[in-house]
Design a protein that fits this description.
Blueprint: H1 2-13, E1 24-27, E2 35-37, E3 47-50, E4 53-56, E5 63-65, E6 72-80, E7 85-92, E8 104-109, E9 145-152, E10 155-160, E11 163-169, H2 173-180, E12 197-200, E13 207-216
Antiparallel strand pairs: 1-13, 2-5, 3-4, 4-13, 5-12, 6-9, 6-13, 7-8, 7-12, 9-10, 10-11
Length: 217
Amino acid sequence: MLKTTLLLSFILVSEISTAQSKWLNLFDGSNLDQWRTYQCNCTTDGWIIVNNELVRKGPARDLITKEKFKNFILELEWNISKGGNSGIILRANEREQYSFMSGIEMQILDDFNHPDGTNTLTSAGSVYSLYPNLTNATKPFGEWNKVRIIAFDNSIKFFLNSQLINSVSIGSNSWNKAVSKSKFKSLKNFGSSLYGHIVLQDHGNEVSFRHIKIRKL
C-alpha cells in the first residue's frame, strides 16, 4: 500500500509527458474501433459520431472498451444534456447483467435539472453512491467537463475540471463502510476486480464525449 501511495503521489506532483506515443486514443473523433457494446461483439445505432464527438443519441446499451485495463490514467471530456444522466465505469466485467454491478462509476449528471443532483453522493463527479462530490467544480449541462482518473492497484483518484474530487482505496475500512451503506452491498464482487473494461454508460439520455485517451501505468 505504501508503494502504491508513493507512486500516486509522484504522478500527482510530476509533469506527465503527453507525447502521442505514450497515450492510446480510445476515441479521436473519427471511429469506434476501440469500442463495442456491453456483452455483445457489436455496436448499436444509438452511439454515433457527430462533429468529432461520440454521442449517445438514441436507444443503445453501455459502450465498453474492447481492451481491458488495470493501472492507467484516463482522460476525457463529457457534455450532458439537460436533465441527463450517464457515467464512466471502471474495470467492469461482463458477468453481471449491467456494467455498474461490477465496475466503479464516476457519475455524469446535470446537477441542476436532475433530482440526483441534490445529493452529493449521486451528483456529477461523485463515485456513485459511495463517495460524494463536495466541490463546486461541475459545469452545467451544455458545457464540457474534463475528467482525469488515475488508477493504480487498489487506489483510484478522481479529478473533475482539474480538481481532485475523491481518492479511493478499494478494500479499505472507508471503502467497506461505503459499500455496506450503498445499493451495491448485496453484490458480492462489486468493485473488487483490478482489471476490466472502461465503460461509457447509456442511462437513457443524450450525452457527448470527446478527447478520450488512456495511458497504461
